[in-house]
Amino acid sequence: MILHQKERENEEKAFKMWLMKYINMDKKTFVPFEKCYQKRKIKVSRKSNEEILEKAYSIRRKLNRSKRGV
Predict the structure, then answer these.
(1) Residue 46: its pLDDT value, please?
(2) CA separation (Å) from 22 to 2, 11, 12, 13, 42?
(3) 9: domain range?
(4) How far is CA 16 from CA 8, 48, 51, 66, in A?
(5) What's the number of domains the chain is made of?
(6) Per-residue pLDDT in tens (0 to 9) along the chain, 70 residues
């Protein structure tokens, strides 16, 4: 459901950009939205919860060390 929402948001952004270009198009330079818009694949993490948490803790430890000047 979240991926579908992200895809919809990307399509809406692309349509707004196409509308801005549409103003300057004529019969020779017209490009239909469907041809202009290309769906992007959204990357989904395949890591386990433990791997993600370990990475977050690692980043936090590094940030804490840099704050202390170590």
Answers:
(1) 83
(2) 30, 16, 15, 14, 27
(3) 2-68
(4) 12, 37, 38, 42
(5) 1
(6) 777 888 888 889 989 998 999 999 999 999 888 887 776 555 667 888 899 999 999 999 999 888 776 5
